[in-house]
């Protein structure tokens, strides 16, 4: 059952219909879709953004990460959701 849940979570990555937050990554502002619930559950920074009254991110459901590399961001999301990280050379 656990493996099925992890595969379903991986399948939900960047699916606009299943996620409520837009994350704009890098200088080119590449758009990703994520779950505020999962981000907040795994990060106190995201928890503050989405569940602390009055912060812009809570209202807009958008996060801007201009200093983040958009090529590695999907791996970061996958790690947050699954606890797994695939390393390549």
In short:
The chain has 89 residues and is α+β, with helices and mostly antiparallel strands. Helices cover 46% and strands 16% of the residues.
Report the principal-axis shape: globular
Widest sheet, order of strands: 2-1-3
Secondary-structure element sequence? HEEHHHEH
Give the DSSP E fraction (strand runs of 2 or more residues): 15-25%
What topology emerges from the helices and strands here?
Elements (H helix, E strand, L loop, with lengths): L1 H11 L8 E5 L4 E5 L1 H7 L1 H8 L4 H5 L1 E4 L7 H10 L7
Parallel strand pairs: 1-3
Antiparallel strand pairs: 1-2
Helix pairs in contact: 2-3
Description:
With 89 residues, the protein is of the alpha+beta class. The chain has helices spanning 2-12, 36-42, 44-51, 56-60, 73-82; strands spanning 21-25, 30-34, 62-65. A three-stranded mixed sheet has the order 2-1-3. β1 (21-25) and β2 (30-34) form a beta hairpin. It starts with a helix and ends in a 7-residue tail after the last helix. The mean pLDDT is 88.
């Amino acid at each position: 059952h656990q493996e099925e849940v992890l595969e379903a979570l991986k399948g939900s990555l960047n699916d606009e219909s299943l996620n409520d937050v837009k994350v704009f990554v890098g200088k080119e502002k590449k758009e990703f879709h994520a779950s505020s619930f999962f981000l907040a559950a795994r990060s106190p920074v995201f928890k503050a953004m989405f569940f602390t009254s009055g912060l812009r991110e809570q209202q807009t459901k958008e996060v801007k990460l201009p200093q983040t590399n958009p090529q590695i961001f999907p791996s970061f999301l996958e790690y947050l959701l699954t606890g797994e990280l695939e390393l390549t050379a």
